[in-house]
Amino acid sequence: MLCEKCHQKPATVFFTQIICGIATKTSTCRECHEADNPGQATLRETECHYCGEKPAYRQVGYPITGEPAQLIAACRRCSKERMHFLLTRMSSILNIENFSLDNPDSLKSLRERVWQVDTINKEDFERKFRDFPQELEEHMKKWVKERDR
Hints:
41% of the residues lie in helices and 16% in strands. It folds into two domains: 40 residues, no CATH class; 100 residues, no CATH class. It is α+β, with helices and mostly antiparallel strands. The strands form two sheets. The protein has a two-stranded antiparallel ribbon.
């Protein structure tokens, strides 16, 4: 597979961006990736933010809380648990009943509710999400500790 940008070198960096459940995938060579993302370490040069293992993904952290988005390197296991926590916690904050990651209708309801976020009382929304980044970090530390026992 060739780089989607230069169409000359083999694609070695595969990036999937998921926003409200819609995935966009790109496949580029390392040079094109670094040119598009100056100052960002490649996955080979980092470690999982949560457990120190080799990362498989970089994920955007906390853009919904108004804090600047940041890329977080995560191994496969931590990435899966992080996404599970994020979706489950968001569904509870946004009052989506009977949420299940195994139910496509639950994910659809969550996506629709996130897109309607401007209809929610802004003060209430900010209050509910204020501690979200800290809750996520605490959850992941506890989860990694239990996993590694």
